[in-house]
Amino acid sequence: MIFLDAAATTPVRREVLDAMWPYLTGEFGNPSSHHSLGEAAARALADARASVAAVLGCRAGEVTFTSGGTEADNLAVKGIALARQAADPALTRVVISAVEHPAVEESARYLERFHGFTVDVLPVDSTGQVTPEALAGLLRPETALVSVMYANNEVGTVQPVARLAALAREYGVPFHTDAVQAGGWLPLDTKALGVDAMSISGHKLGAPKGCGLLFVRGRTRLEPVIHGGGQERGRRSGTENVAGAVGLATALTLAQSRQRDQEVRVTVLRDTFISAVLSAVPGAVLTGHPTERLPSVASFCFPGTSGESVLLELERQGVVCSSGSACAAGSDAPSPVLTALGISAEVAQTAVRFSFDASVTTEDLDAAARAVSTAVASVRTLGAG
Ligand code: PLP
Q: What gap in Å lies between CA 202 and CA 195, rounded to an integer?
């Protein structure tokens, strides 16, 4: 099997499992316990936080471990907007881009439904990018938060996060970015990016599902979303997932230590794959930005097919990929991300996403490109028949 669905999830790396193992077995303490087992767990958690902080260029106290990317996004969007509104009731608006993951989009809609916020949606161009000019047009004195993802999970488009964050800062508005897909592929230095909050998920990086983190800068106000015993400095209650935090820190450190090499190597493979598919499949269209895109994502529409049928045909040929984001899979509605790029609902139904992890090879992608050509031709023939 050639697994080209790494944007959905990745297997746990051996080094990550090894690092986690003690905290799932002998060192199983609760970090809040005042005995040696608890203290060992608390130390492991502190070390994991320090490792993450070193990667993100922040202080350990600015890192909150969560149950994944979805929770980190919820905590950022709801937590910052509600805390700021509590301090200043005039803050009643949030800005999000038109291509956010549902974890951000639905958190903003929750604020609209239950807390009287207005959600201002930042449009994207046909490549999926937002512009600083468009953001400037939406920033108002009532804006509590801006949330724009670092890189899109369906089409891989990378946003000009540093420029957008700098602009939000000029207006005194905190800027959150969902960096779940960027981890391992793009620089994550929070100072260089200038972001006030950033979400990361473990299972996209070789850590297990169910662990993630939110970076929140210094004095940014944050209302917790999960209430209870006050763990994570009151920002996220619940007994900490010590092994998960250790696994996430290990995976993030490994991934970011090779980030630049991986970015360069896989970008070349991605572009060769894109060219091979575009030349082998008549009518194929690349979706997303031609160059400002994740090294790991090649996404297409194949007009005259259905994405789901191409997917099934590819799987029969040993290539596993996705017809859109895993979260939207199974839904008949056209992807809101693709329609935001101006792609018609009909063409959006023909979308297929190929996403790679760092172990991808030229041979895998050559074989995959041949399989795509055969699969699309066969689906078109069946459709015509
Ligand atoms: N944000 C983006 C951009 C994603 O791609 C995903 C997962 O696909 C998430 C958030 C959610 O992360 P998790 O699966 O860890 O909840």
A: 20
CA–centroid distance, residue 280 to ligand 1 (Å): 32
For residue 100, give the ligand 1 atom closest to its CA. 3
Decide: 177 and 166 in contact? Cβ < 8 Å. Answer: no
Which letter, b or e, does each residue of 87-122 get, where b requires 16 or more Cβ atoms within 10 Å of its Cβ? eeeebbbbbbbbbbbebbbbbbebbeeeeebeebbb
For residues 262 and 185, is the Cβ–Cβ distance under 8 A? yes
Whether the CB-CB separation of 270 and 295 falls below 8 Å is answered with yes
Residue 169 has pLDDT above 70, yes or no: yes
| Eight-class DSSP state of 322 | B
Q: Which of 137-141, 244-248, 381-385 has the lowest mean pLDDT?
A: 381-385
The mean per-residue pLDDT over the stretch 171-186 comes to: 98
Place of tokens 């991934």: 255
pLDDT category of residue 385 using cuts at 50, 70 and 90? low
Work out how many domains the chain is built from and give that number: 2
327 in catalytic set: yes
**Catalytic residue (one of 58, 211, 321, 327):** 327
78, 149: one domain: yes
Residue 73 has pLDDT above 70, yes or no: yes
Domain boundary among 231, 257, 283: 257
Q: Is the pLDDT of residue 211 over 70?
A: yes
Q: Tell me the C-alpha to C-alpha distance, in Å, between residue 262 and each of 30, 213, 366.
A: 37, 23, 19
Domain limits at 244?
14-257
One domain, residues 181 and 283: no
Q: Are residues 121 and 237 in the same domain?
A: yes
Tell whether 302 and 236 lie within a shared domain: no
pLDDT value at position 384? 72
Dihedral angle of Cα 118, 126, 349, 5, to the nearest 10 degrees: -90
pTM of the predicted protein model: 0.97
What SS3 state is found at 94?
strand
- What lies within 8 Å, CB to CB, of 116 at 6+ separation is 92
- What is the pLDDT, as a whole number, of residue 331? 63
Q: What is the pLDDT of residues 330-364, one digit of tens each?
A: 567 889 999 999 999 999 999 999 999 999 999 99
Around ligand 1, the residues with Cβ closer than 6 Å are 68-70, 73, 101, 103, 149, 153, 178, 180-181, 201, 203, 212, 327
